Amino acid sequence: MLVVVEFTSARYKLSPIARQARSVAAMDERARAHASEEDEDWTPSAGDVAQTAASAASPLVSDMDFEASLAEFQELARSAGAQIAAVLVQRRAKPDAATLVGGGKLDEIVATVASTGASLVLFDHDLTPSQARNVEARLPVTVIDRTQLILDIFARHARTREGMLQVELAQLDYSLPRLGGKGKTMSQTGGGIGTRGPGETQLEVDKRKINVRIDRIKQQLEAVRRIRRQQRGRREAVPVPTVALVGYTNAGKSTLFNSLTGAEVLASERMFATLDPKLRQLTLPSRRRILVSDTVGFIRNLPHGLVTSFRATLEEVERAELLLHVRDAASPTLEEQRVQVEAVLEELGVSRKPVLQVLNKIDLLPPDEIFPPDAIPVSGMTGQGLDALLKAIDAALTRDPLMEAEFRIPQSEGRVIASLERGATMLQQRYEGNLVYLKAVGPTSLLERYRRYQWKGAESAHATESDGSAGEI
Ligand SMILES: Nc1nc2c(ncn2[C@@H]2O[C@H](COP(=O)(O)OP(=O)(O)OP(=O)(O)O)[C@@H](O)[C@H]2O)c(=O)[nH]1
Ligand SMILES: [Mg+2]
């Protein structure tokens, strides 16, 4: 499938690193001349704007409904600020080894770029380094594949230092084997066997520079992570369970996070709005406190390197006691998205964690819609269903499950009473002489701490109430 995307330069700029990688990777003599004429770093200029995208119908895409897949890719392109000038589609049993799309289709791309004045060609598929070189050789404009587009979106959305370093690392990793296509051509013009052409020399210099940069980034990342581990160590001294929101990009995780925690995290119709983990404290109906974390969204064919480089960001997911899989109930690709998210969770090694299925955006559905019994329907936008969601979180936290207990505590033990009032929900509370009678629901760890004041377990609560023996100890 192929999309020709037109960009207005005012809104679309490749991130600096993508530009740098490109200017190193893809410049032959012609391109260098072209670039220096107009704009040093190949940023599309006003009249000279566009981009294209393509993908052969390979097994990678065939498992998603074709229309939905195409629509999603266009959404991604728009998230990067692109305007789509044309969409070209190719279906093939097998990708062409040299150019991904067939020769006829490539001619068509060349003609479309010429007729639309597009300045970029975007492929909804990854190009091997040699495919990228071959396709670029035929086109006067920049060619970007699916991974590069996603990396570019990531680059513009990263906010923390760690996020930025991670994206840059992923971009450099991806661009390294893609360097030097044109350099190879140049070295051939440079002469016979054993001679080193000017292009190749430049290429070696470029590769060395990038390798040096990669090492620097890795060191910096390590330093950032060390600090974060220390902070976490401090946090874990007081064990508060973490609940992580996971899900497909645009499912509404940040919106839900905001309405659950009263935070102001950026929620946006742009894909991959959230890249850096956000943590907020939340008190559940049981008074139990938890940390909720909002995370980066997943997407079909998330570039493999990205998953690994975002491992650290996704550490919150790994550490979480419970996952909330937030799903866009109004999406036509609801089921496909679930499969993709579960695949990423598998890759992160967290597929065994307890998960609550949260069907979000129910405000967009008819009111009589029927949901599967294990799903929790909510709307992060309107707040519908949030109470039920909080209760479900309470019930699902198994490390320190909720229990019910009755207490008789001397009034002089004000500290114990206060601690129970803070950490548990009071069902009943009354004075009995110099004792305080409490019936409470709360985390086992808290209620068991005051076991010596417990009177009878929750199981017998009904029996004791009906046989009127509440006054006995
Ligand atoms: N109608 C409706 N729209 C919602 C709801 N929740 C989120 N949205 C919209 O869906 C879009 C995506 O919301 P986000 O909260 O940014 O989604 P996200 O899952 O955090 O996305 P990424 O961070 O990009 O992975 C925004 O335009 C929201 O306004 C909802 O309950 N109902
Ligand atoms: Mg988000």
Structure description:
The protein has about 475 residues and is α/β, with parallel strands linked by helices. The protein has 3 domains: about 1-145, 3-Layer(aba) Sandwich (Rossmann fold); about 240-395, 3-Layer(aba) Sandwich (Rossmann fold); about 400-465, Alpha-Beta Plaits. It has helices spanning about 15-25, 30-40, 60, 65-80, 105-115, 130-140, 145-155, 160-175, 180-190, 200-235, 255-260, 305-310, 315-320, 335-345, 385-395, 415-425, 445-450, 460-465, and strands at about 1-5, 50-55, 80-90, 120-125, 140-145, 240-245, 280-285, 290-295, 320-330, 355-360, 375, 400-410, 425-430, 435-445, 455. The strands form 4 sheets. It has a 6-stranded mixed β-sheet, with helices on both faces. A hairpin with a 2-residue loop joins strand 13 (about 425-430) and strand 14 (about 435-445). Mean pLDDT is about 75; it is low at about 5-65, about 180-195 and about 455-473. It is found in: Cytoplasm.
Into how many domains do the coordinates divide? 3
Cα-atom radius of gyration: 28 Å
Task: Write down the CATH topology of the largest domain.
Answer: Rossmann fold
Query: Largest sheet at a glance?
Result: 6 strands, mixed
Strand order of the largest sheet: 7-8-6-9-10-11
Q: Average the pLDDT over all residues and give the rounded result.
A: 75
Strand count: 15
Structural class, by secondary structure, is alpha/beta
Assign the CATH class of the largest domain.
Alpha Beta
Task: State the CATH superfamily name of the largest domain.
Answer: P-loop containing nucleotide triphosphate hydrolases
* Helix content class: 40-55%
The coarse silhouette is elongated
Amount of beta strand: 15-25%
Given as residue ranges, the uncertain stretches (5+ residues, pLDDT < 50) are 4-63, 181-196, 457-473
InterPro entries: G_HFLX_dom, GTP-bd, GTP-bd_M, GTPase_HflX, GTPase_HflX_N, GTPase_HflX_N_sf, P-loop_NTPase
Binding site for GTP: 247-254, 272-276, 294-297, 360-363
Binding site for Mg(2+): 254, 274
Domain Hflx-type G: 241-401
